[in-house]
Write a structure and sequence with these properties.
Elements (H helix, E strand, L loop, with lengths): L1 H8 L20 E2 L13 E2 L4 E6 L2 E2 L6 E6 L11 H7 L6 E9 L5 E6 L3 E4 L2 E4 H9 L4 E9 L8 E8 L5 H11 L8 E4 L13 H7 L9 E6 L4 E4 L2 H8 L6
Parallel strand pairs: 11-12
Antiparallel strand pairs: 1-2, 3-4, 3-5, 5-6, 6-7, 8-9, 10-11, 12-13, 13-14
Length: 254
């Protein structure tokens, strides 16, 4: 979304996006060799000498199916200093580095960033630990439990933060808004609240993040009470169908 905006403001320029990690030493591991308009949203494809693949369920994914991006090539780091266990977990048995990034790859090898895998979400170019947001939320009076996850917002890269919570009836939303905004940086503040009657857990008592993430923040498909962290009004306001449509249409500052 940011690259598209830059392209619109500089119509005679060429905008490209790169992807890379510090573990890859050489920096970016993809190259943008096409104009943005030809590959909108793509981070490019493998640099010379580098292999990229998208894996789901332990097997390579077909084109345009989301999975973890894995990398293999001569510029990979050899492991984390003084942490053999983490180094072993970072690589597959056949030498592919697990990036922890959820991506898809098209039939021509171009990759598209979706989100971070695991207990983080990426918003405004920052990786946000869900544990940090959950801990900040659950210490507020009347909040009983909180499940933090990312949800996709149309026209925005990454995922916006959402807190699905169970709470007592006397939850002070105005106080919670102030509590969160004082303690968390802008990019980590949850944009959406979902107040649930009961928190679902898996058979091992882990909260069901995948189902919540798939629900998104659409009030037409969610029966729980929904609220939006509206920076323009300075409060959590009820999220109805009209407000949902305004957000998805880009009519509000996020």
């Amino acid at each position: 979304a940011l690259a598209r905006t830059v392209q619109e403001r500089l119509p005679n320029g060429k905008v490209g996006q790169l992807w890379g990690m510090s573990e890859l030493q050489a920096g970016a591991f993809t190259r943008p060799d096409d104009p943005l308009e030809a590959r909108t949203g793509s981070a490019g494809r493998a640099s010379p000498g580098t292999e990229l693949r998208v894996v789901g369920g332990g097997v390579p994914c077909p084109a345009d199916i989301e999975g973890e991006l894995q990398v293999r090539g001569p510029s990979l780091f050899s492991g984390y200093l003084d942490n053999a266990a983490a180094s072993a977990d970072a690589f597959t048995e056949d030498g592919w580095f697990r990036t922890g990034d959820l991506m898809r790859q098209d039939s021509e090898g171009y990759v598209y960033f979706i989100d971070r895998i695991g207990d983080t979400f990426r918003w405004k170019g920052q990786n946000v630990p869900t544990s940090e947001v959950a801990e900040t939320t659950t210490v507020f009076p009347a909040v009983l439990a909180a499940n933090v996850h990312g949800v996709h917002v149309h026209g925005h890269e990454g995922s916006a933060g959402m807190v699905a919570m169970s709470a007592d009836r006397d939850l002070d939303l105005a106080g919670l808004y102030e509590h969160i905004n004082i303690r968390l940086p802008v990019y980590a503040r949850p944009l959406f609240l979902r107040i649930r009657h009961e928190m679902e857990v898996t058979g091992t008592f882990k909260q069901k993040k995948v189902d919540l993430r798939n629900d998104g923040f659409d009030p037409a498909r969610i029966g729980d009470d929904l609220f939006f962290n509206n920076a323009e009004t300075g409060r959590f306001e009820p999220l109805d169908v009209d407000l949902y449509r305004r957000i998805q249409a880009g009519g509000l500052r996020l």
